[in-house]
Amino acid sequence: MRTLAYLAVLLLGAVAVMYMVGRSLPVAHLASRGQRFDAPLDSVWRLIADVGTYASWRTGLSRVELLTPLNGRTAWREYTRRGSVDYVAEEMVEGELFVARITTTGLPYGGRWRYELNPDTGGTRVTITEEGEIYNPILRCLMKYVIGETRSIEALLDAIGKVCRAERGRGARGLSAPRATVRDDSTPNACAPSRRRPATTSVAWSRSRPSRSASPLHRATRSAPSPGRSSTSRSASRRWGWRTAGSRSR
Fold first, then answer.
1. pLDDT on residue 177
2. Is the full-model pTM beyond 0.90?
3. How many CB atoms sit inside 10 A of residue 21's CB?
4. Contact criterion met (CB below 8 Å) for 126 and 157
């Protein structure tokens, strides 16, 4: 019991320290990260601006619900395991700028995210700037010193990068939201190691055949004994005096 009491005192002390530290931090913060993607600018723009497909490639989203436009601007609701949050496209400049702002009230946080797109040596550079506000002092302290203020930005950039790599692996000319989420292991990934087997002279490995594992010819080729093995068997039988069904006595 005394140990539990000490642990409870330590926990309360840690919470009190985080509360005091959080109160000393500003409510608003500004964080920014950028990354270059090997994909056309118009394709990356369509991926970001099509909010209805977010759940198919963004990690952590279970679904997205399109809402009634707010003052003529696109509005939507994102569902996660922790609940739902409403957003509005506060500003849109096609191919250049997309600004999403939280409209849900009563949350311990708020703010908006700016997506800036620029062409970059045959690809696209996306810079995401978070203009966030954290109202809870304890959460403010955790976000500053434990979680990191750029964590959500880095997660968004990683998700965009996975879609770009997958589309590049398919050889597609433009990006499109995948039918499955990016966490699906069946999604092709250009960064995944190749699983091709070494080339062989067997006709079962011809490029025109669909699948080696499903090819009856491949299975038959592997199960058939090679000439070298039969010759070795006959040599051994002659040496030790064995006879097989196909051998003749001399």
1. 61
2. no
3. 16
4. yes
